[in-house]
Amino acid sequence: MPSFADALEWLLIHPAMLHHGEYISSSPDKEVWHFQMSEAFGNTQIVFKKIDGYMLPLSRRLGMSPSLREALNFAVFSALGIQTPDVLACGESRVLGFLRSSFIVTRYIKHSYNGEALMPVGSLRENIKLRMGFCRNLLRYLAKFHQAGYANNGFHPRNVLFPKQSYEKNPQLIWVGAESSIRTAMKNIRNVIPLDLVHIFVALRLSTEEIKELCCFYLECNPDCNYTVQSLWDTMRNLPIGS
Length: 243
Known about the structure:
- This protein has helices at residues 4-13, 58-62, 66-79, 128-147, 189-204, 208-221, 229-237, and strands at residues 22-27, 30-36, 45-52, 87-95, 98-107, 112-114, 150-151, 160-163, 174-175, 182-183.
- By secondary structure, the protein is an alpha+beta fold.
- The N and C termini lie far apart (54 Å).
Protein backbone atom coordinates (compact mmCIF):
# COMPACT_ATOMS: atom_id res chain seq x y z
CA MET A 1 0.00 0.00 0.00
CA PRO A 2 1.35 3.49 -0.83
CA SER A 3 2.55 5.57 2.11
CA PHE A 4 0.57 8.62 3.16
CA ALA A 5 3.29 10.71 1.53
CA ASP A 6 1.88 9.58 -1.83
CA ALA A 7 -1.66 10.44 -0.73
CA LEU A 8 -0.49 13.85 0.48
CA GLU A 9 1.23 14.59 -2.81
CA TRP A 10 -2.01 13.76 -4.62
CA LEU A 11 -4.02 15.97 -2.25
CA LEU A 12 -1.71 18.94 -2.70
CA ILE A 13 -1.93 18.60 -6.49
CA HIS A 14 -5.75 18.25 -6.35
CA PRO A 15 -6.87 20.47 -3.41
CA ALA A 16 -10.33 21.02 -4.90
CA MET A 17 -11.08 17.31 -4.36
CA LEU A 18 -11.54 18.07 -0.67
CA HIS A 19 -14.79 19.81 -1.64
CA HIS A 20 -16.21 16.36 -2.41
CA GLY A 21 -15.83 15.50 1.26
CA GLU A 22 -17.71 16.67 4.34
CA TYR A 23 -17.34 20.29 5.39
CA ILE A 24 -16.83 20.10 9.18
CA SER A 25 -16.30 23.72 10.19
CA SER A 26 -14.77 27.01 9.21
CA SER A 27 -13.66 30.35 10.60
CA PRO A 28 -12.25 33.40 8.81
CA ASP A 29 -8.76 31.86 8.79
CA LYS A 30 -9.45 28.10 8.76
CA GLU A 31 -11.33 25.37 6.86
CA VAL A 32 -11.77 21.82 8.18
CA TRP A 33 -12.75 18.94 5.90
CA HIS A 34 -13.45 15.24 6.39
CA PHE A 35 -12.38 13.34 3.29
CA GLN A 36 -11.97 9.69 2.32
CA MET A 37 -9.01 8.91 0.10
CA SER A 38 -9.51 6.61 -2.86
CA GLU A 39 -8.89 2.87 -2.81
CA ALA A 40 -5.48 3.54 -4.38
CA PHE A 41 -4.54 5.25 -1.10
CA GLY A 42 -6.09 2.68 1.20
CA ASN A 43 -9.50 4.38 1.61
CA THR A 44 -7.95 6.32 4.50
CA GLN A 45 -10.38 8.74 6.13
CA ILE A 46 -8.75 12.01 7.09
CA VAL A 47 -9.40 15.42 8.59
CA PHE A 48 -7.68 18.17 6.60
CA LYS A 49 -7.31 21.54 8.35
CA LYS A 50 -6.09 24.43 6.22
CA ILE A 51 -5.04 27.82 7.62
CA ASP A 52 -5.11 30.94 5.46
CA GLY A 53 -2.04 32.85 6.61
CA TYR A 54 -3.22 36.11 5.06
CA MET A 55 -6.10 36.19 7.57
CA LEU A 56 -3.74 36.07 10.56
CA PRO A 57 -2.28 39.16 12.29
CA LEU A 58 1.10 40.13 10.88
CA SER A 59 2.95 39.09 14.05
CA ARG A 60 1.51 35.56 13.81
CA ARG A 61 2.45 35.25 10.15
CA LEU A 62 6.12 35.56 11.10
CA GLY A 63 5.96 33.01 13.92
CA MET A 64 5.33 29.30 14.07
CA SER A 65 2.36 28.30 11.94
CA PRO A 66 -0.81 27.19 13.77
CA SER A 67 -0.58 23.82 12.01
CA LEU A 68 2.95 23.10 13.20
CA ARG A 69 2.06 24.29 16.71
CA GLU A 70 -0.91 21.92 16.75
CA ALA A 71 1.21 18.98 15.57
CA LEU A 72 3.79 19.68 18.29
CA ASN A 73 1.07 20.08 20.91
CA PHE A 74 -0.47 16.75 19.93
CA ALA A 75 2.93 15.12 20.51
CA VAL A 76 3.26 16.76 23.92
CA PHE A 77 -0.28 15.90 24.97
CA SER A 78 0.16 12.31 23.86
CA ALA A 79 3.29 12.11 26.03
CA LEU A 80 1.15 13.34 28.95
CA GLY A 81 -1.21 10.38 28.43
CA ILE A 82 -3.91 12.42 26.67
CA GLN A 83 -5.44 10.76 23.63
CA THR A 84 -5.05 12.71 20.38
CA PRO A 85 -5.63 11.86 16.72
CA ASP A 86 -2.82 10.39 14.61
CA VAL A 87 -1.01 13.16 12.73
CA LEU A 88 -0.44 12.01 9.15
CA ALA A 89 1.12 15.16 7.68
CA CYS A 90 1.82 18.81 8.36
CA GLY A 91 3.19 21.60 6.16
CA GLU A 92 3.25 25.27 5.34
CA SER A 93 3.95 27.77 2.57
CA ARG A 94 5.73 31.11 3.11
CA VAL A 95 6.61 34.16 1.04
CA LEU A 96 9.67 36.12 2.22
CA GLY A 97 9.26 34.46 5.62
CA PHE A 98 5.58 35.40 5.97
CA LEU A 99 3.10 32.54 6.33
CA ARG A 100 0.87 32.18 3.28
CA SER A 101 -0.90 28.98 4.32
CA SER A 102 -0.43 25.89 6.44
CA PHE A 103 -2.16 22.56 6.91
CA ILE A 104 -2.34 19.55 9.19
CA VAL A 105 -3.80 16.16 8.28
CA THR A 106 -5.02 13.79 10.98
CA ARG A 107 -6.74 10.43 10.88
CA TYR A 108 -10.53 10.75 11.08
CA ILE A 109 -12.07 9.34 14.26
CA LYS A 110 -15.24 7.42 13.44
CA HIS A 111 -18.41 6.94 15.47
CA SER A 112 -17.90 9.90 17.78
CA TYR A 113 -19.57 13.07 19.02
CA ASN A 114 -17.82 16.30 19.80
CA GLY A 115 -18.48 18.21 22.99
CA GLU A 116 -20.87 20.54 21.19
CA ALA A 117 -23.48 17.78 21.62
CA LEU A 118 -23.50 18.60 25.35
CA MET A 119 -24.04 22.33 24.90
CA PRO A 120 -27.49 23.94 25.37
CA VAL A 121 -28.76 23.13 21.87
CA GLY A 122 -26.89 19.82 21.61
CA SER A 123 -28.59 16.47 21.11
CA LEU A 124 -27.15 15.05 24.36
CA ARG A 125 -27.69 18.09 26.56
CA GLU A 126 -30.21 16.37 28.83
CA ASN A 127 -27.84 13.53 29.68
CA ILE A 128 -26.50 15.04 32.90
CA LYS A 129 -24.35 12.03 33.83
CA LEU A 130 -22.60 12.15 30.46
CA ARG A 131 -22.17 15.93 30.59
CA MET A 132 -20.58 15.80 34.02
CA GLY A 133 -18.45 12.77 33.10
CA PHE A 134 -17.23 14.69 30.05
CA CYS A 135 -16.40 17.72 32.20
CA ARG A 136 -14.57 15.72 34.86
CA ASN A 137 -12.35 13.99 32.29
CA LEU A 138 -11.81 17.31 30.53
CA LEU A 139 -10.67 18.92 33.78
CA ARG A 140 -8.40 15.94 34.41
CA TYR A 141 -6.77 16.72 31.05
CA LEU A 142 -6.56 20.42 31.85
CA ALA A 143 -4.85 19.69 35.16
CA LYS A 144 -2.19 17.77 33.24
CA PHE A 145 -1.82 20.69 30.80
CA HIS A 146 -1.41 23.20 33.61
CA GLN A 147 1.02 21.04 35.55
CA ALA A 148 3.14 20.79 32.37
CA GLY A 149 3.10 24.57 31.92
CA TYR A 150 0.49 24.90 29.16
CA ALA A 151 -2.35 27.37 28.72
CA ASN A 152 -5.24 26.16 26.62
CA ASN A 153 -6.42 29.62 25.37
CA GLY A 154 -9.85 29.80 23.77
CA PHE A 155 -11.05 26.25 24.41
CA HIS A 156 -14.31 25.13 22.82
CA PRO A 157 -16.09 21.82 23.56
CA ARG A 158 -16.05 20.94 19.85
CA ASN A 159 -12.28 20.45 20.22
CA VAL A 160 -12.87 17.22 22.14
CA LEU A 161 -14.48 14.03 20.81
CA PHE A 162 -15.94 11.07 22.66
CA PRO A 163 -17.25 7.73 21.32
CA LYS A 164 -20.97 7.40 20.61
CA GLN A 165 -20.97 4.27 22.76
CA SER A 166 -19.56 5.95 25.88
CA TYR A 167 -19.78 4.99 29.50
CA GLU A 168 -21.71 7.99 30.80
CA LYS A 169 -19.70 8.65 33.95
CA ASN A 170 -16.32 8.13 32.31
CA PRO A 171 -16.34 8.87 28.55
CA GLN A 172 -13.08 8.40 26.71
CA LEU A 173 -11.97 11.81 25.39
CA ILE A 174 -9.89 12.53 22.30
CA TRP A 175 -8.41 16.03 22.03
CA VAL A 176 -8.64 17.07 18.35
CA GLY A 177 -8.03 20.84 18.43
CA ALA A 178 -4.76 21.99 20.00
CA GLU A 179 -3.51 24.89 17.89
CA SER A 180 -4.37 27.52 20.54
CA SER A 181 -2.52 25.78 23.38
CA ILE A 182 0.77 27.47 24.25
CA ARG A 183 3.63 26.90 26.67
CA THR A 184 3.80 29.56 29.35
CA ALA A 185 5.98 30.30 32.35
CA MET A 186 5.03 28.27 35.40
CA LYS A 187 4.76 31.48 37.42
CA ASN A 188 1.85 32.48 35.15
CA ILE A 189 -0.08 29.20 35.36
CA ARG A 190 -2.07 30.32 38.38
CA ASN A 191 -3.56 33.12 36.26
CA VAL A 192 -4.23 30.71 33.39
CA ILE A 193 -6.26 28.22 35.40
CA PRO A 194 -9.45 30.25 36.03
CA LEU A 195 -9.51 31.52 32.44
CA ASP A 196 -9.24 28.00 30.98
CA LEU A 197 -11.91 26.68 33.33
CA VAL A 198 -14.38 29.51 32.76
CA HIS A 199 -14.22 28.95 28.99
CA ILE A 200 -15.52 25.44 29.60
CA PHE A 201 -18.17 26.41 32.13
CA VAL A 202 -19.53 29.26 29.99
CA ALA A 203 -19.58 27.24 26.77
CA LEU A 204 -21.50 24.40 28.43
CA ARG A 205 -23.75 26.76 30.44
CA LEU A 206 -23.29 24.84 33.66
CA SER A 207 -25.16 25.63 36.85
CA THR A 208 -23.50 27.15 39.91
CA GLU A 209 -23.74 23.81 41.71
CA GLU A 210 -22.13 21.96 38.79
CA ILE A 211 -19.34 24.53 38.52
CA LYS A 212 -18.48 24.33 42.22
CA GLU A 213 -18.51 20.53 42.10
CA LEU A 214 -16.17 20.60 39.11
CA CYS A 215 -13.88 23.18 40.73
CA CYS A 216 -13.54 20.82 43.67
CA PHE A 217 -12.73 17.97 41.27
CA TYR A 218 -10.14 20.07 39.42
CA LEU A 219 -8.39 20.92 42.70
CA GLU A 220 -8.22 17.22 43.53
CA CYS A 221 -6.42 16.71 40.19
CA ASN A 222 -4.15 19.74 40.67
CA PRO A 223 -3.85 20.20 44.45
CA ASP A 224 -0.70 22.38 44.34
CA CYS A 225 -2.16 25.28 42.32
CA ASN A 226 -2.77 27.46 45.42
CA TYR A 227 -6.52 27.82 44.99
CA THR A 228 -9.46 26.84 47.14
CA VAL A 229 -12.90 26.22 45.66
CA GLN A 230 -14.04 29.62 46.93
CA SER A 231 -11.01 31.57 45.70
CA LEU A 232 -11.21 29.87 42.31
CA TRP A 233 -14.92 30.66 42.10
CA ASP A 234 -14.34 34.30 43.08
CA THR A 235 -11.56 34.71 40.51
CA MET A 236 -13.69 33.23 37.71
CA ARG A 237 -16.61 35.51 38.60
CA ASN A 238 -14.36 38.54 38.15
CA LEU A 239 -13.19 37.55 34.68
CA PRO A 240 -14.83 39.51 31.81
CA ILE A 241 -15.74 36.29 29.94
CA GLY A 242 -17.76 35.11 32.92
CA SER A 243 -19.89 38.25 33.12
